[in-house]
Amino acid sequence: xxxxxxxxxxxxMSKEEAKDAARNGKQWSLEDFEIGKPLGRGKFGSVYLARxxxxxxxxxxxxxxxxxxxxxxVEHQLRREIxxxxxxxxxxxxxxxxxxxxxxxxxxxxxxxxxxxxxxxxMKVGHFPESQAAKYVLEMSEALEYCHDKHVIHRDxxxxxxxxxxxxxxKIADFGWSVHAPSSRRNTLCxxxxxxxxxxxxxxxxxxxxxxxxxxxxxxxxxxxxxxxEAEGHQQTYRRISRxxxxxxxxxxxxxxxxxxxxxxxxxxxxxxxSEIKNHPWILRCLPAPLGNSTNRSK
Length: 299
What we know:
This protein has 299 residues and is of the alpha+beta class. The protein has two domains: 12-111, Phosphorylase Kinase, domain 1 (2-Layer Sandwich), CATH 3.30.200; 116-293, Transferase(Phosphotransferase) domain 1 (Transferase(Phosphotransferase), domain 1), CATH 1.10.510. Helices cover 36% and strands 17% of the residues. The protein is built from eleven helices and ten strands. Strands 1-2-3-5-4 form a five-stranded antiparallel beta sheet. A hairpin with a 5-residue loop joins strand 2 (45-52) and strand 3. It is globular. The protein starts with 11 loop residues before the first helix and ends in a 13-residue tail after the last helix.
């Protein structure tokens, strides 16, 4: 394996060349990459630091075992993930440059996020200070608003699915449960228990508003260090979610509580619009301009 530095930053021209190659449908192969250290391991394979030989552009190469995907019956889910993520272009969404495969494996070419997993950072510090939590919530709201404009519902927002870029910017990284739903309402139970909205656990149809609920749960966990509906067993958690049984510990500011409770509304259509979050008093108090008034999005 080649010795690659995780801190390597490719030149701007290399990045553009890599994007052009992705855009033009280049047929990649493993020979195009120098493989470096492992970045993480998942249920169906591993992620490695890699460098494209021609441009020297640093990427993350996700290597999935076909046999494990087939055994779990998630081939369709992977195809959907590739189709959706490869078409999204936003500064707070991890870019997928392309994919290729051989007899035994499927390889996803992903943007490299140097600061790693947000979940590990959260576990290390316990909870985030308000200014940092507000920055992440604003970035999430803008990324999700972009997704919803593209008729994409993520459906599995949680700290484990978020990475941090070179400047500490948040990146939504896992679209395994996402769906492109231009007009339909869906009734698939998916996502992570603590982040499931009432309409999902009650077996009702759901739409893009599931992501608003998950953002409220995420904000609570950022500030408190644990999700709001945590309980000893699944049934108790289900019950607390269905009742919207939120209990705030001391130290959570009133304006923060207000934003969380505007997102954690049982009736999906009653949840706060993503476009309104950037102007909420908590965001404006915690973030100095121009970040608190950010409307810039990478299209």
